[in-house]
Amino acid sequence: MARARAALSSIGLSLSLSLVLGLGAPQRARAAGEDAVEDTGPRSSRPAPKMSGEALLTFIGQADAHVVVVPAGPPTPALLETGDSIIARLRAGGRLRAVLDGQRLGDLSEASDAEILARVDRRGGAMTIDRVLIVRVAGYGADQVVYADSYTRGGERYAGFVLHAGETLAPHVDPAASLEARREVFEPATRQAAANDVVAGANDLSDAERSYLEQALYMPRDLVLRGIYRDPLANEETVALFDNPALVEASKRREKTRRGLTLTGLFLGYPTVVISAVMIGLSMTGEFGKGFLYANLGTLSVGTLVCVGGAIGWGMQPVLGEPELRAEVERHNHNLRSELDLPANIDAQLASEEGGPLARRPGWSSSLAPLLDAEGRAAGGVVSWSVRF
Fold first, then answer.
1. Up-side HSE of residue 20: CA atoms within 13 Å toward CB?
2. pLDDT at 1 over 90
3. Where do the segments described as Disordered lie (predicted)?
């Protein structure tokens, strides 16, 4: 794993808007690629990733196989174009029995690998499926990253790679490959890589590294993020990940107190204040006597105190402050590295040249991609706008 890197080298908050332009009756169509792209945000001069059919075949690991290539994630033109490109290159090699796409699997914009594999197994029926290649695309424009995992139909991970824009995909290294696979799959790809000064295995991502990327915690600011896709975690979710029962219990008590005070102030304190104020206003007419006025003044005082308690609950801080939370995040990652037998500098090894998986690149972009029907004719187009910050 000389140059394998994290999949989301340029992940940030993103807002996207897509407009589909149809040229006729609805037809089964998909994006054929981006015809034009204008990006006013920060750009890189690096070209798109380069993937040969020979190198891709090594991540399948065998010839004469049935393969399903599944582009997963939001169906952006870049993802669809990458998926189509991988399918075309695998088919062009002529050494696989069948290369299928994942269109029958439904919406995969938020599906995990496990969910995708379950759909393949359920909808594949009696069909022979030797490998499932799940492809994801992260980043923007010339900062694009292709991330892929190859699985057996049973869900066992065979191999994976991370490929940044401008890189040439290096063939996978499989010491356990059969003699037939070495002769038909790995040796041709290795010779081609050597001719292009590409080191075999340079983009490989081991199971341990994959597990680390899935489970590691990151804290770019005051928010804890988890895994490859940088899912934000609530404070109680973060604390639950730490191997500290006392801390977990203290966090639960704090959260229970916070919610109790806040809800009491909201649903008991504020209504009491409003009703008491109305009653005091009515008592000013002189129709109810002073006893009624004093009783409502007392109720107003109690309601006010309950409201203050609700405000205190709303403003209660978590058990762990930011410095302590950062220390616990680092302790979690340290224990994870030890468990997976990974070096202490694994984060640096998996980081991108642009600042690592947490790099944020503000900017906006627009793109236009044609939609083609099953016969290759133009059926419409997709205009996409993205704002990232």
1. 15
2. no
3. 31-50
| pLDDT at residue 42, rounded to an integer | 40
Residue ending a domain, choose from 294, 314, 334: 314
d(CA 113, CA 91): 23
- List of E strands, the chain: 14-22, 30-31, 36-39, 66-71, 98-101, 131-138, 145-151, 157-164, 217-218, 225-226, 231-232, 363-372, 378-388
Around Cβ 241, how many Cβ atoms within 10 Å? 17
* DSSP 3-state of 101: strand
Q: Indicate whether 280 and 167 sit together in one domain.
A: no
Predicted TM-score (pTM) of the model is 0.58
For residue 239, being part of any structural domain is answered with no
- Tell me, yes or no, whether 338 lies in a domain: no
Residues 195 and 292 in one domain: no
DSSP tally for the chain: helices H, then strands E: 12, 13
The Cα 97–Cα 67 span in angstroms is 8
Spatial distance between the Cα atoms of 3 and 204, rounded to a whole number of angstroms: 8
Q: Residues 338-350: pLDDT tens digits?
A: 998 988 888 776 6
- Structure tokens that stand for 299 in this block: 């109720």
- DSSP bridge partners of 388: 14, 363
Report whether 87 contacts 139 (CB < 8 A): no
Domain range enclosing 254: 245-314
Secondary element (H or E) of residue 78: helix 77-93
By the 8 A CB rule, do 242 and 332 touch?
yes
Angle at 46 (CA atoms; ends 40, 49), nearest 5 degrees: 115
Rounded to an integer, what distance in angstroms lies between the CA atom of residue 362 and that of residue 42? Answer: 7
